[in-house]
Design brief:
By secondary structure, the chain is an alpha+beta fold. The protein has three domains: 136 residues, Gyrase A, domain 2; 87 residues, 2-Layer Sandwich (Alpha-Beta Plaits); 77 residues, Elongation Factor Tu (Ef-tu), domain 3. 21% of the residues lie in helices and 33% in strands. A six-stranded mixed sheet has the order 10-11-12-9-3-13. Helix 2 crosses helix 7. It is globular.
Amino acid sequence: MDLTTLKRTPLYEAHLELKARMVPFTGYAMPVQYTGLVDEHHATRKAVGLFDVSHMGELVVEGPRALAVVDRLVTNDVRGLTDGQARYTLCCNARGTVLDDLIVYRVAQDKVLIVCNASNREKIVGHFVAQAGAEAKVTDLSDVTALLAVQGPRALDLLRAAGMEGRVAELPAFHFTDTAVANVACTVSRTGYTGEDGVELFCPPADAARVWRTLLGLGAELGAKPAGLGCRNTLRLECKMALYGNDIDETTNPLEAGLAWAVKLDTGDFVGREALQAVKAAGLTRRLVGFEVTDRAIARDHFEVIDGGDVKVGYVTSGSPGPTVGKNLGLAYVPVALSELGTALRLRDPERGRVCSAVVVKTPFYKRAR
């Protein structure tokens, strides 16, 4: 595997020092695991997992109409944010299908930060530039921003040990502030993609390795471990957090994906609103559901959902063992008639033709105790 042609995050050398298994991911050489997917998964659930997510895209929208521009391009309410507050949302096209899912951060009345998926960076930046026109300035900050995720029940203990200043622990979820960590100026956000408590740290790329090494060194006594893309996927799947390119994309809409809570159909206009209103009025034809496999098989991404006549009627978007819940689980788009809890499903491996059994269950599969 040749990784020399891929982009590297500011922590690339640190990953090699830890003997991480590196893989291509959205154009970057990224760590998929260090000590093992299951070990890193449990470390994050029980103590602290430290993730390099510097491959993510960041853009800033600035100007007197920055909030109005962003509000028009995303499905959730942005005008209602206060300074230092963030919100999960989606960005749709005119057809109402998903260009990307985003987190929008209100820095000030005239400045909004947006984090997008790495695979969609160019698309989203281009979309925002084109739609903003002369109303606001859009700047891609991805190459001058490092992003680390510190996740788990001991995450705040670790940050305090690293000299974190301010009252970050008192911040509600989806709020952020500027502070220092390991003597580095950071923006600390109470967000994450694991279902655990914790933060995401924005810092200058030149300082990222110092923050990373400091946190790992101080975190040894707390059970902190570096964590790769592999367990990031199993952690988010247990919590039914959507993965772009699997569970949502430009062939899916937020309503069928179970993300209606992030769509302000009745409180403001945005790109794709008319199409989504039509979808709602007509009624859904399929839904994204959670399932547990009821035999010993593992249902992987792209398995087919088949009916009694072995005809494909849906597909698995994400499938994996769930280390915390101890079951093989997944998400799948199925016809509405097969979406009720307790419904039996038949899943077929399209390559081997093997069929396994599953049942529709309540999601999220895992939810941490508050």
